[in-house]
Amino acid sequence: MTGAKLSVVFFGSGPVAAKSLELLAKDFDVEAVVTKPKPSGWRGEWPVLEAAQKHKLRILTANNKAELSEAMSGQRFKSRLGLVIDYGIIIPEAVFLGFELGIVNSHFSLLPQWRGADPISFAILSGQKETGVSLMIIEAGLDTGPLLAQETVRIPAQATTSSLTEQLIKTSHDLLKVALPDYAAGKIRPYPQDPSMEPTYSRKLAKEDGKLDWTKPADQLEREIRAFHEWPKSRATIAGKEVIITEASVTNVSGKPGEILRAAKKLTVACGRNGLLIEQLKPAGGREMSAAAFLAGLRN
Amino acid sequence: MNRHHIISLPAENLRKPSAEVTDFAAARKLAGQMIRATLDWEDSREHEFGVALAAIQINRPLSMIVVRRRFDDKSERDFDVYVNPRIARVEGEPASELEGCLSVRDTYGRVARYPKVKIKAQDLDGKVISRVAKGFMARVFQHEIDHIQGITFVDRCGPHGEFFTLLPDGSMQKLSESERAAFLKLAGLKPPKDKR
């Protein structure tokens, strides 16, 4: 038995929103896409706008909360619910109350864990084995709203923020395909986030987070290297050269934090606890290379 | 293996997490024992079904459950086996219904469970399987997978939960305050801390 595709108004702006929208356009009737406008003179990609144009979807733009209120006031949608993914603008109450079933946010963590701007990197940084996706009905607080559903995802040992994000985009879509129709049909109701769990908060990463601090334990730095892999990248100075470390593993050595322990073609740096065996690194202005190649370059 | 091998609260092992199954030959053997114990238990009960069992309930701390294929017909005695099961997805506001357990003698309690879940597991050949369950079946999976984490339904009810006993005529009678206190003292309580 088949039914009509569920109608939603989509709010999103970043690359995760664009990939999500590509998937949504197949399985939902996306009545409109609300996104940030392309800045005049911008010559690069503007993914959500391009995805919306490709699928011939109706587009509304707003740069901030005030413009969003303005753009949405007086709009009448047939959609009983909205969906927000990776938008970067706080949606005002008048907008989310304007939908009979509210606006659902697909948040890439198991709320109430990792509320805030960067749940994926923080899940990797914490060393936890699992994370997931939560579908949450937005309310005034930051990521405090009641949930419709959650799905867990194992964090692979070698996960980077971008590889885990790709996985979570797929998981989010699988969850939305099932839970949004169930919600719209009255088969499931929202429930509060687990009050017995202490909420944790992520934040937007900054460039300074990428500066490698050798006094930290090696396993912490190994996770930073993966969490910061695309940005802000883990940076250090090794043998006088500025490098970005892209791959490393924890090794059982001890020494003064930052002390370089060289042995044949291996490059190990002592940390606050244990050491990091550097596997791949990228010197400033150069290409990504193995530690052996880097060391050979130093000798010349 | 028979119903006398089924352990009951306050047995300590019911509050310990079970280990991952890696030996599937041993798991195949264990599944048979679990099913036999469950059916033997059911045959000794007038009004109750042997719906499902976790390996720890016959004192084997392994991540495995057996679940009756059909709950409405006692003559249907087939079970499905799920090895290393975990709840992958939960949906919807939890609803409270009465639950019983082969390891909690003669006492039922109201437990809030998600109405819809998706589980991931392996079959007895080690193949990865997944299954979506709603309503009562969803309740069964959540109850059994709790056992694998060392949680019994009593722990979910908590110190203020409502408990009932099954009378000989098949009806439920709510425990009085003193009966409830005595039951909780005997059963012990372990507040469940869901792993995240």
Report on this model:
The complex is a heterodimer of chains A (300) and B (196). Chain A has helices at 15-27, 47-54, 65-72, 93-97, 119-126, 161-184, 218-227, 291-299; strands at residues 7-11, 29-35, 59-61, 81-84, 103-107, 115-116, 130-137, 147-154, 201-202, 234-238, 241-251, 260-263, 266-270, 275-283, 289-290. Chain A is 28% helix and 27% strand. In chain A, the strands form 3 sheets. A 7-stranded mixed β-sheet of chain A has the order 3-2-1-4-5-7-8, sandwiched between helices. In chain A, helix 1 packs parallel to helix 2 (47-54). The N and C termini of chain A lie far apart (70 Å). Chain B has 196 residues and is α+β, with helices and mostly antiparallel strands. Chain B contains 4 helices and 9 strands, in the order αβββββββααββα. In chain B, the strands form 2 sheets. In chain B, strands 1-2-3-6-7 form a 5-stranded antiparallel β-sheet. Chain B has a 4-stranded antiparallel β-sheet with strand order 4-5-8-9. In chain B, strand 4 (95-101) and strand 5 (104-113) form a beta hairpin. The model of chain B has no long low-confidence stretch (mean pLDDT 93). Chain A binds chain B through residues 110, 113, 128, 130, 148-152, 175, 178-179, 182, 187-191, 194, 196-197, and chain B through 86-94, 115-116, 118, 193-194, 196. Strand 8 of chain A pairs antiparallel with strand 3 (79-91) of chain B.
